Amino acid sequence: MTLDPEVVRKDFPIFETRMRGKRLVYLDSANTSQKPRQVIERMVEFYEHENANIHRAVYELAERSTAAYEGARAKCAHFIQAPSPRSIVFTRGTTESINLVRYSWARANVHEGDEVLVTEMEHHSNLVPWQLLTQETGATLRNLPVDDDGMLRVDLLESFITDRTKLVCVGLMSNVLGTINPVRRLADAVHAVGGLIMVDAAQAAPHMPVDVSELDADFLAFSSHKMCGPTGAGVLYGRERLLEEMPPFHGGGEMIREVFADHSTWNEIPHKFEAGTMNIAQAVGLGAAVDYLQSLGMGSVRAHEMELTAYALEQLNAVGAEVHGPLDVARRGGAISFNVGGVHPHDLATIVDQEGVCIRAGHHCAQPLMRRLGVPATARASLYIYNTREDIDVLMGALEQAKGWFA
Amino acid sequence: MVRMSLDELYKEVILDHYRTPRNRGRLDPHDVKLERNNPLCGDELELYLKFDGEDLEGIAFEGKGCSISMASASMMTEKVKGLDVKQARAVAESIKRMMAGEEPGDINELGDLVSLKGVVKYPVRIKCALLGWNTLLEGLDEVP
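Predict the joint structure of the above. Result:
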């Protein structure tokens, strides 16, 4: 099934908004995506007809809200081919998911002398928690380098994954370079030494089929807001066996089984990790986003973005932009970082904004990678299901204008 | 809605300072060297100050950043060179007031710096324009 972005666009009310009288050209979906009517309406429907707290009351309305929330969990499990909804923990987003692993699993399992391996292209959210963990435990943080084409140096894996490696933390798709990383290869390497792998799928889950068994991931995290869902919801997938053994993250209501004056016992997974009243409507909205993306087909989403990314790379080359990251669309997604000679990314972003074009400029929460690339900042255009060739053409016209200002 | 035009932001004098920055480079010897950045956007600035008593005898900067941050720093060095600490501080405070949308005071005193007024309409760029000035204010506190 081929995806027609002009049809998809009609599902997104925001595209009725004009920017300075012009068509809104939204090229910042790697930052956050726009939301389709189906998701917005599902959340309104929930608040108007199903709202009650979950898992706590016996009345019919609470059964409806619980069914909606747990239904969303089942949808998320199916979305990433997880064996059971029990392996899906709802969080506020990828950052919280990763921090859950840090506080719960890693604190109990990573000790002085152990190693945690990250990569040079990680988003700060999959780097800073591991800096904090290793500083706290006396473990060593190691960094797998990136080559000049923006690919991970997997040729160095043998020296970076040792019998001390307890955890490898890697993004499936880079938010800066677009690179799709060989996660399965890293998983096999760390499993061979008895360690685990934590996959940051925040950029991948919205854009390509993700299968936790195929990746052999122990933990995998993603965010609702980058995949057509609302902010405030995200997922941590964990192997059931691991989740069972892990201590709780936050303490409070709902995560307990029995509470005594001086101690408590824990609820079954995944509820053990969901303390307090969760972002219920947001989780329901995420479920609707999963339905929406699956109705398009993740294979079609990926095919559309590969085609459009190829076009964008070709056009960027034509205007003389320097693209950071792989040029082969089979090895990358649609987050495209670039620099235009003589024009600072900030100036670029301001100038193209006058044409109704939204791009990001800055370090994209990946300062170590910026240093590796030798640039203080880049401009980034990131593509999604509602972007068209016309969007790319408008961007290119705006880039030409920007060059004119600073010529 | 206020109609915004790029001409108000990228005035010729700003583009001129960006293309041909004044007082760019290291200053040796110097009394103060400060490195500051805008971490969110990646603008980087090194500011060198040399004092003669209370007078700012020399000032120079190095940096990488957008046109607004670099042009603002360049204009700043031209404006404050030779002023005494108190005068330099007053100019910096005046620019900060202008960026906050307040009356900067005697506008004739500011000269080319008035060209920065257009930045106020682009709130996300205000911190670019102020990088040099905030660094200067810190540096003036370190007068030996």
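The mean pLDDT of chain A is 96.
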